[in-house]
Design brief:
Number of helices: 4
Structural class: alpha+beta
Number of strands: 8
Order of helices and strands: EHEEEEHEEEHH
Radius of gyration: 17 Å
Strand content: 25-35%
Shape: elongated
Strand order of the largest sheet: 2-3-4-5-7-6
């Protein structure tokens, strides 16, 4: 393939800038591999990060927006309408992640710019922090109702 982007022969240095036109899911997977974080490109074309973080997440490349959409979700046991107050409290108290409910699931996402490139180290640190924040949200006192057995 004449238009393919060759992978570096050795791991990227910590402050490596990935040029905007070279920010691809295979390149991001390589960055995660070098940080010992397991990931794969799923059937929907997103990067699924399965091991090595506090909670599994996905990364979607949005080239038209010059951004990465980092997102994750977990099922909840109450209706979306009943979950709104907990979601509002999570959005007020936790940074980096934007929380919402849809189809009986708690979702969080974060947009990360790739305009003019992406620092590999910042990408990894952002994923780690995002996953940790989502885990903190699930453990937050206001979220207990989201996961409680409704029959109990």
């Amino acid at each position: 393939m004449s238009n393919s982007i060759p992978f570096p022969k050795k791991p990227l240095p910590p402050l490596a800038l990935i040029e905007e036109e070279h920010v691809t899911l295979p390149r991001l997977k390589q960055v995660l591999d070098s940080a010992f974080i397991d990931s794969e490109i799923d059937t929907e074309g997103d990067l699924f990060v399965s091991q090595g973080l506090d909670f599994p997440i996905w990364v979607a490349l949005e080239p038209d927006r010059k951004a990465l959409n980092i997102y994750t979700c977990v099922g909840i046991r109450i209706s979306d309408a009943r979950a709104f107050s907990a979601v509002n409290e999570l959005n007020q108290g936790l940074i980096l992640a934007q929380f919402h409910v849809k189809d009986r699931a708690l979702w969080a996402n974060h947009w990360m710019s790739i305009d003019n490139g992406l620092l590999a180290r910042q990408f990894v640190l952002t994923l780690r922090r995002f996953a940790t924040i989502f885990q903190e949200a699930m453990d937050h006192p206001c979220a207990k109702e989201l996961f409680a057995d409704p029959s109990a």
